[in-house]
Amino acid sequence: MKCKQVSNEFRVLIRTIATALDVLPIGLIDLPNEVKEIVVLVAKQVEKAKSEVELTDERTAVLVTSISNQFENRVAPNPTDLKRVLDYLNIRSWNQCNKEIKFLEEEISTARARGENREVDFLRNLIAFVIYSRVVVFDFIDEHRSSSNNLSIFDNGSNPGSTISCLDSEDFLCPNSLEIMSDPVIISTGHTFDRVSIQKWFKSGNLICPKTGEKLTSIEIVTTKN
């Protein structure tokens, strides 16, 4: 997302090095010939060096920005576009999405410590993008799907627990925290979340549904019936 900014910073750095080496009185400094040769070589390489934005980086950044704008306008983005971004980031599973979310949360903590409020808002938008993409692109939770195969309640034999094998364990998980919901509540989009998780989400300033990316008209929550 910051490929242009990073490229510009490298460009400034390269020009600074080039200027420094250009004015360096190498002939007046008592240096071994090998070192002088290296300095001259570096100076020539710096003059030729370029810092251009990778075209694929730029295209992906534009695509993410476009998807974010669709969220703002309450338009559901094309799942194919979401998958293109995730594939480019080598995110190909629910768990990998979670790792990306944790990374972005760490970046938010760093930005907060520096007082970079705009950066925090930017990172929150990226987290919302990943959470939305996680649900749309991947239709199951890796770790829970794999572990469920080892649970007796999903056996097809004579185990009494097999009577509830038709239940999907993911129905009991909060889409936001991925933990079993101890106090499920419903938000204005009709989706169910764990109370603590969704309240924390709202307190962080997020005003969209973590599951659909839809902008919320209200942050009121309704307790589900037992």
What structural keywords apply?
8 helices, 3 strands, single chain, 226 residues, elongated, 54% helix, mainly alpha
How would you concisely characterize the structure shown here?
This protein is mainly alpha-helical and about 230 residues long.
Order of helices and strands: HHHHHHHEEHE
Distance between the termini: 44 Å
Q: Major β-sheet, in short? A: 3 strands, antiparallel
Write down how many β-strands occur, each being a DSSP E stretch of 2 or more residues.
3
Helical fraction equals 40-55%
Anisotropy-based shape:
elongated
Structural category is mainly alpha
Which regions contain 5 or more consecutive residues with pLDDT less than 50?
143-169
* Nearest-integer average pLDDT: 78
Overview of this structure, please?
- The chain is mainly alpha-helical.
- It is built from 8 helices and 3 strands, in the order αααααααββαβ.
- A 3-stranded antiparallel beta sheet has the order 2-1-3.
- A hairpin with a 5-residue loop joins strand 1 and strand 2.
- Helix 4 packs across helix 6 and helix 5 packs antiparallel against helix 6.
- The chain is elongated and about 80 Å long.
- 15% of the residues are buried.
